[in-house]
Structure formats: C-alpha cells, structure tokens
Specification:
The protein is mainly β and about 160 residues long. The chain has one helix at about 1-10, and strands spanning about 15-25, 25-30, 30, 45, 70, 85, 90-100, 110-115, 130, 145-155. A hairpin with a 6-residue loop joins strand 7 and strand 8.
Length: about 160
C-alpha cells in the first residue's frame, strides 16, 4: 500500500551508533614549593594520604594539600610519585544516520547527526599539584562540552 511505503520511507532505514567511555581517575605527580635539598623537583615528606573522600572533593579542593611537608635541609624527601588520583571521566558519543535513495542508479544522499559528549557531562582536567602554591588542589580546566553537528553527503 502507498501509506506503508510512505511510512517506511520516513521511519525505516535509520542507523544508530554510539561510543561509551568511562575512566577512573589517573594518578598525577606533585611537587612542593620548598626545596631544602637544592635538587630541582622535590616531593616533600609524606604525612597522610592526599586523596579526599568523594563527598569532600570539589573543583576548588580536589586533594588534601597538607599531605606533604618540606623535608629537613640536606635530607632527601620521602613522598612517592603519583600519589594524587585525578578526576575520572564519562562520555557518550551518538550518531544517527539515514541513506536516502536517489532516482539515479547507484546515487544516494546520506543525512547524518552526530553529538560528541551527548549527555553534556562535565569532565574535569587535572588539579594543580604544586603544593604550597595558591592554586594547589584547584581544577581550572575541563574537556569540551556537548558538540552537535549535522551533515548531508551525496554519494554517486
């Protein structure tokens, strides 16, 4: 029937695709702004874990900045590397497309909708890890917000 063909032309043949990405936080290195050894990069003496419970974390204070203290002059610091765990990330990219046949053999038009970070989830960057600096523990960067694009392609 003609109605069936019209409905099939409008709602049939769509393609849907997506990519889901989920990451836990990655370890990040730190430094302390007091250099009692005159060696260059110094990590300080370890006092306690830098990682705050998730209920206490914010972009203004991602980790406990008092987790290290300057070491004594002439004594090597004992804090390890990559003690701070940065923020994780979640992302969903979506694509919807449809090929429309053209009246000439082998010709078609493709309509395409793509959305990157479809849910517009805030994915924050690494915190500032220079302990003893005013910005220590702050996150000032984020990944891109939702991006949407449409495309029309003629294939022959």
């Amino acid at each position: 029937t003609n109605l069936h063909k019209a409905v099939d032309f409008i709602v049939g043949g769509w393609q849907l695709g997506g990519i889901v990405s989920a990451y836990s936080g990655f370890p990040v290195p730190h430094t302390i702004n007091v250099n009692n050894q005159n060696l260059g990069v110094v990590r300080g003496d370890f006092v306690r874990s830098p990682n705050l419970p998730s209920s206490e974390r914010s972009i203004d204070r991602w980790f406990d900045t008092g987790f290290v203290v300057p070491s004594q002059p002439g004594v090597f610091s004992n804090a390890g590397r990559n003690l701070i765990v940065g923020p994780g990330a979640k992302n969903l990219d979506v694509m919807v497309a449809r090929d429309f046949p053209m009246p000439w053999e082998g010709h078609q038009a493709q309509f395409r909708f793509e959305s990157f970070n479809f849910t517009n989830t805030a994915n924050f960057g690494r915190p500032a890890t220079g302990v003893g600096t005013p910005a220590a523990g702050e996150i000032t960067t984020a990944a891109d917000p939702r991006r949407i694009q449409f495309g029309l392609k003629y294939v022959f």
